[in-house]
Amino acid sequence: MHSAFSEVGHREREQSRLVLQPTHSSTGIPTELGIRRTGQSQIDMKLSIVLSTQPASFSALAYKGELEQNIAKIAGLGYDGVELAVRDPQSLDLEAVSGILKRHDLSVPAIGTGQAYGEEGLSFTAIDGAVRHRAIERIKAQIELGARLQALVILGLIRGRVEADVSRPQAYEWLVQALTECAEYAAVNGVKLAMEPINRYETDLIATVAEGLELIQHVGSEAFGLLLDSFHMNIEEPAIEHSIRSAGDRIFHFHIADSNRWYPGAGHIDFKGIVEGLAEVGYDGFLSAEILPLPDADTCAEKTIEKMRAILK
Asked: Are 264 and 311 in contact (CB under 8 A)?
């Protein structure tokens, strides 16, 4: 029964991949970091969904814990990969997780790090220098994990926010300093870092694609790019497809969730337009579902891949 279940999931993963002809040639620059290749005639996007490896208060997670069971479900539904949300790599049994992933033929496109902020208060912009240092060291540990799993590392809420008694220029300076140090460490380890612009209601630092691109200029590392999220973009961007095109080859990863943070198709976001925009800039990475587990985890995962497969076929 296990082998038949896995075979069905493998066939569905193969069917879920996008092959589109770009409307114009890709302008992506080929680098050793391997985001995309110039001159591609076909673009191949894959599907993943977020799974938290440890307990978390963050709500937009379809699956939490029960790694063996949930990874089997994700593979069986036809996903190509599973994005792992990891609070602290030191608490992760990497050997066991790697074994489960191998058994179900799933890759890990990205590692989420926001739980270090949500559960422990670690951030790059904390007024306490010791907290900032711990945040940097935590991300370095995540980079080492990323190197082991061949996954990029997401920088979301761990950026922090402008705290009381801290000026915005000071917070921004701390942020750039932390990111520069982490990006240097990432480059040495062959890992990419992806900063996620997050809407104004969750942070007051880096809410838009334009702000993310400006930050990239200040950090100045080929290892540092953007994770774009359709939920946040729906709040902050005047035109999602235009912002995708402006980000171009700096898009390292992409989160999908509808306007209400439910599964794609439960709100009003135009995912076909998003996919077409990503294809135009030569994006060939993962579309990873970071969604509320509504009406329940299995249903939202099924609805996501059903919706996206119809677009990607």
From this structure: no
Q: Is the dihedral of CA 143, 203, 308, 224 positive or negative?
A: negative
d(CA 3, CA 10): 10
Q: CA-CA distance, 264 to 243, in Å (whole number)?
A: 19
Distance CA 154, CA 221 (A): 15
Q: Look-up: residue for tokens 């711990």?
A: 134
Q: How far apart are CA 196 and CA 190, in angstroms?
A: 20
Respond yes or no: is residue 12 known to be catalytic: no
Over residues 176-230, the pLDDT tens digits come to 999 999 999 999 999 999 999 999 999 999 999 999 999 999 999 999 999 999 9
Q: Which of 12, 83, 237, 290 is catalytic?
A: 290
Instruction: Report the distance separating Cα 272 and Cα 311, nearest Å.
Output: 6
All structural domains of the chain, each given as residue ranges with its CATH number in brackets, are 2-312 (3.20.20.150)
First to last CA, the chain: 27
Span 259-289, pLDDT tens digits? 999 999 999 999 999 999 999 999 999 999 9
Q: Which of 196, 236, 237, 280 is catalytic?
A: 196
Give, in degrees to the nearest 5, the angle at Cα 110 between 109 and 114.
Answer: 165
Check if 290 is active-site.
Answer: yes
